[in-house]
Design a protein that fits this description.
The protein has 319 residues and is α/β, with parallel strands linked by helices. A hairpin with a 6-residue loop joins β9 and β10. α1 packs across α5. The relative contact order is 0.15. The protein binds threonylcarbamoyladenylate (TXA) and magnesium ion. Threonylcarbamoyladenylate binds next to β5 and β6. The site of threonylcarbamoyladenylate (TXA) has 26 residues, from β5 and β6.
């Protein structure tokens, strides 16, 4: 299928995208994790349009994407812990929940009225150029309809959002493939709100402290990524399934050394490769409606496996 709002990245399309952001439009753009659905953080109407396009509940706060550390103290309270983590992990797939500096009402919608602001600096050339050319932080949730699988290519965005987005900047497939790790830095101990592209082990090695894992209250999520049903493919999915237990009528997504998988996240058992393939393979699997469901191999619970298991647990959740 062809979509006429996909633009291959070049200096002209970048300029057009920056103009679109400035004028209050919506631009989907690549980051190292997944594609984001971007708007000018200070334009409440544009931010509202993000919620409408995604079909997302309006109380859900959004991540502001910045290209320069100097932006941070303008609207967030920082301290040495924040700055050290930023210097070590930015640009990169790590998002901070920080206390808002003052009550700048322009940020209310992006922050969903909370006293916190959520920020990251993406490690992607096109994203950084777009933010710089727009001259403002860009708020962006993943560029998919609420509760569906996050997009890791421009085509995924177009298939999910179609003409609800003014422009899609195509930068090819996303390198990391799962969303950023989100940590709460408003508390004395660092709290992990969402496992993601930076592993818990890396964070603990750097900070030298034990990070608290928040499982949240699924009915009242602090981070709606904590909703039990999220990232869901349209076919029912079973996880932790050994090859010998896959049903005849199931599409099997394997990991590591299995012999009969329709798709294998990483035949060599590499968790980074598995993360990068995860969402694209779930999308591929759900197209096979000749199957009754999807079965997935067990994934080890370390490194990026934490983020992968988190996503597939929610994707397989049954009410
Ligand atoms: O990798 C990513 O983080 C991608 C790319 C585009 O940057 N973005 C992304 O955004 O995944 P989104 O909106 O799909 O997921 C962000 C999650 C949401 O579940 C949101 O509720 C949570 O972060 N969140 C944002 N601000 C928060 C806050 N102040 N407190 C708690 N949770 C927050
Ligand atoms: Mg999302």
């Amino acid at each position: 299928m062809m979509f006429d709002n996909i633009y291959e990245y070049n200096p002209q399309s970048l300029q057009k995208a920056a103009e679109t952001i400035k004028k209050g439009g919506l631009v989907a753009f690549p980051t190292e994790t997944v594609y984001g659905l971007g708007a000018n953080v200070y334009n409440s109407q544009a931010v509202a349009n993000i919620f409408a396009a995604k079909g997302r509940p309006a109380f859900n706060p959004l991540i502001s994407h910045i290209a320069d550390l100097d932006f941070l103290p303008e609207y967030a309270l920082t301290d040495s812990r924040v700055m050290e983590l930023a210097k070590r992990f930015w640009p990169g797939p790590l998002t901070f929940v920080l206390r808002r500096k003052d009550e700048n009402p322009a940020l209310d919608l992006a922050c969903a009225g909370l006293p916190t602001v959520t920020v990251r600096m993406p490690d992607h050339k096109i994203a950084l150029k777009l933010i710089k050319a727009s001259g403002v932080p860009i708020v962006a949730p993943s560029a998919n309809r609420s509760t569906t699988i996050s997009p890791t290519t421009a085509e995924h965005v177009a298939a999910s959002l179609g003409d609800k987005v003014d422009m899609i900047l195509d930068g090819g497939p996303c390198r990391v493939g799962v969303e950023s790790t989100i940590i709460d830095l408003t508390t004395e101990n660092i709290v992990l709100l969402r496992a993601g592209g930076i592993s818990l082990e890396e964070l603990e090695a750097f900070t030298g402290e034990k990070i608290i894992i928040s499982h949240g209250n699924p009915d009242q999520p602090k981070s709606p990524g904590q909703l039990l049903k999220h990232y869901a493919p349209s076919l029912p999915m079973r996880i932790n399934v050994d090859e010998k237990d896959v049903h005849q009528d199931e599409f099997f997504i394997g990991f590591g050394n299995v012999s009969h998988a329709q798709l294998n996240l990483s035949p060599s058992g590499d968790l980074r490769q598995a993360a990068a393939n995860l969402f694209a393979y779930m999308r591929e699997a759900e197209k096979h409606t000749e199957y009754k469901g999807i079965a997935m191999s067990p994934i080890p619970e370390n490194g990026l496996g934490l983020a992968i298991n988190d996503r597939i647990r929610r994707a397989s959740y049954k009410k």
